[in-house]
Amino acid sequence: MDLKKFIEAQGLTDFPIGLGGCRTAGCFFDSCDYDLMVFDENSSDKQIIAFDDSLITVHHCSLSETNTKKLLQYDKLDVLQDDSWNLKILLSTISGKRDSLFSDSAKNSLIESLFCCQKTKDAIQTDDIFAACWQKCASYYLADSLSSFNHSPSSPSHALNSLRKFKKSSINNHISGILGTIGIERATPTLLDRMLKSTIGFSDLVEKNNHSQLIQQKYDYFLKNSMLSDCYFYLVCLNKENFIKIKDTLNREQDLIHILKIAFDIEADSNLLQQYVETIQTSCNDILEIISKT
């Protein structure tokens, strides 16, 4: 991939730019996109652009970023252009704070998971149609937390495989609880095909950035390689991210449940939902207790 050619074609030659994501981490699939971090001080949403038979995701970034999750995305970037050296300075700063950034990210995700647990419980009590969506989010935030505790960059495509490989520890023992509450055991080609269509539909409604093309590309790779559980985990992870983006307007988005029922492959049994959320909440509290003693 001639990324310099892409940078020139998109008129991005004036900005510090780095290549990140799984392409620099050495754990990418053929279906993976190229994550280009463009430090143009622009707050626009990411763009997904087809170029030379590949897909490139352009992330608009800031050299003065303070968000922990985004800073970790910048960690270990492969610098493509940086005449001012400002990007190299930022990366050096991130490298020096890597441990604390991962620690903060892990704790933040635990808090988000507990928040989603409470939202699930409240929703069950009020017969809110989005209760099961909140439960899925709680499980995935806990997965995010464990990834951060293990200094593993967040990546929807590779997250399940990473979780499987984490060494046994008092914290990592809670992985089984996560996997038991998200539904990956139900992954079949028929179900995944239905989930794909709804995931793409939900993405088009929320993101509006051609993400659907990348979702389809990764889905095809997963199915071709019989990675059904990984595909399930990936699709639900994307839906969790988009669901959180609209969480404050759900009262005006009631019709979305028709898409989300399939996209999230949600559980309708409120008793089972209660059981799942108790499992995740207990795990979060156990982990908080563990880290409070370290």
Your description of this structure?
- This protein is α+β, with helices and mostly antiparallel strands.
- It folds into two domains: 94 residues, Beta Polymerase, domain 2; 195 residues, no CATH class.
- Helix content is 57%, strand content 9%.
- It has 13 helices and five strands.
- It has a five-stranded mixed sheet with strand order 3-4-2-1-5.
- A hairpin with a 2-residue loop joins β3 and β4.
- α5 packs antiparallel against α6, α5 runs antiparallel to α13 and α9 packs parallel to α11.
- The chain is globular, with a radius of gyration of 19 Å.
What's the mean pLDDT score?
A: 94
Biggest beta sheet attributes? 5 strands, mixed
Mind telling me the C-alpha Rg? 19 Å
- Give the distance, in angstroms, between the N- and C-terminal Cα atoms: 45 Å
- The tally of helices reads 13
Helical amount among residues, as a percent range? 55-70%
